[in-house]
Amino acid sequence: EAGVTQFPSHSVIEKGQTVTLRCDPISGHDNLYWYRRVMGKEIKFLLHFVKESKQDESGMPNNRFLAERTGGTYSTLKVQPAELEDSGVYFCASSKQASGVTEAFFGQGTRLTVV
Amino acid sequence: QQQVKQSPQSLIVQKGGIPIINCAYENTAFDYFPWYQQFPGKGPALLIAIRPDVSEKKEGRFTISFNKSAKQFSLHIMDSQPGDSATYFCAASMRGATNKLIFGTGTLLAVQP
Q1: How many domains does chain B have?
Q2: What is the pLDDT of residue A99?
Q3: Chain A interface, mutation test: which of B10, B39, B59, B100, most A Cβ atoms within 10 Å?
Q4: Which range marks the domain in which residue B9 is found?
Q5: Could you say which of A1, A61, A101, B13 would form a disulfide bridge with B17 (CB–CB 3.0 to 4.6 Å)?
Q6: Strands A110-114 and A10-13
Q7: What is the maximum span of chain B, computed from C-alpha positions, in angstroms?
């Protein structure tokens, strides 16, 4: 069974540009999460999808971040325009069900560097 | 405001030693406390988890000790090996619609041969 896959692994962009990160969850997992780790700090929750619906987007930093999950399969996270403080590692995770805690499986992350 | 505080930031032990990583939380509504292990270039992977109705859980060489009254929990790695060198994150979540994880800042562990 394939794990959670994220693309790209690394991205270096200039301030003001747009970047789109992609996450393919484990097949059959309705729950998809985005997290971010800024260097040396904790991994912070960004948002949670249940199928194609946003269940909780309380962690999204501002309106420069847009997440979508069309059809309830893969998800994209777009940053437009990117700022220096957006640099960090973006993780995607998926799990089978939200009611009753179940294990969240993480992708390898996308390292975003804004210069 | 950081809801889960983790220490130490980094830790070096000799092979066979018992590294201990500590975490403290504030929100008494948390009811699930996992530990994640992350190797360079990989995503965090669930190592072991505990619920607050037990004080200890052991899986292989990894043990979680949980102190509900002190709102603290810790990870012990018995007979540590160089292959255990990784970053360890404690986390907490509460039963609900989201089950989002609240992570600590991570501990970089190096086990020297």
Answers
A1: 1
A2: 52
A3: B100
A4: 4-112
A5: B13
A6: parallel
A7: 45
